[in-house]
């Protein structure tokens, strides 16, 4: 007998599997930045075949991270961030989310400073 908890774990397994591949994470980045792209437009951003992109999209759709709608002959793609939010909600509470956000902000600021310092050294 499969319980609701088992189904939730299976759904989360699919999300982690989908997020484990760099191309799929890049697809999500592109869909976040430009929602509603067609498959052909999306595939132009990669050095892999359209078939490979279609296979990655199938994994992302199975995990619920990408939703699509037909627009004539074009299949429009959209990021669905709900599964990622569910992962965030599972392991963070209000208190830890505040501090995790601040630590992340420090990390981004430190990385930006390092990039700036590196580019200044290269400019000399």
Structure commentary:
The chain is flat. The chain is built from six helices and three strands, in the order ααβααββαα. It is 69% helix and 11% strand. With 124 residues, the chain is mainly alpha-helical. It starts with a helix and ends with a helix. Strand 2 and strand 3 form a beta hairpin. A three-stranded antiparallel sheet has the order 1-3-2. Helix 1 packs antiparallel against helix 4.
Short description:
The chain has 124 residues and is mainly α. It is built from 6 helices and 3 strands, in the order H-H-E-H-H-E-E-H-H. A hairpin with a 2-residue loop joins strand 2 and strand 3.
Largest sheet: 3 strands, antiparallel
Q: Strand pairing plus helix content: what structural class?
A: mainly alpha
Question: What's the oligomerization state?
Answer: single chain
Task: Note the gap between the termini.
Answer: 67 Å
Q: How many helices in DSSP terms?
A: 6
In angstroms, what is the radius of gyration? 18 Å
Number of strands: 3
Query: Helix content range of the residues, please?
Result: 55-70%
Secondary-structure element series? HHEHHEEHH
Instruction: List the strand order in the largest sheet.
Output: 1-3-2
The average pLDDT is: 91
Strand content: 5-15%
The low-confidence parts are: none
Globally, the shape reads flat
């Amino acid at each position: 007998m499969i319980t609701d908890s088992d189904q939730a774990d299976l759904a989360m397994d699919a999300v982690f599997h989908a997020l484990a591949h760099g191309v799929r994470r890049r697809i999500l980045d592109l869909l976040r930045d430009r929602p509603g792209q067609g498959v052909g437009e999306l595939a132009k951003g990669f050095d892999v075949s359209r078939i490979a992109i279609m296979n990655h999209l199938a994994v992302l759709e199975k995990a619920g991270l990408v939703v699509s709608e037909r627009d004539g002959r074009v299949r429009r793609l959209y990021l669905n961030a709900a599964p990622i939010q569910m992962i965030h909600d599972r392991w963070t509470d209000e208190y830890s989310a505040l501090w995790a956000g601040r630590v992340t902000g420090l990390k981004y600021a430190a990385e930006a400073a390092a990039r700036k310092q590196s580019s200044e050294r290269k400019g000399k």
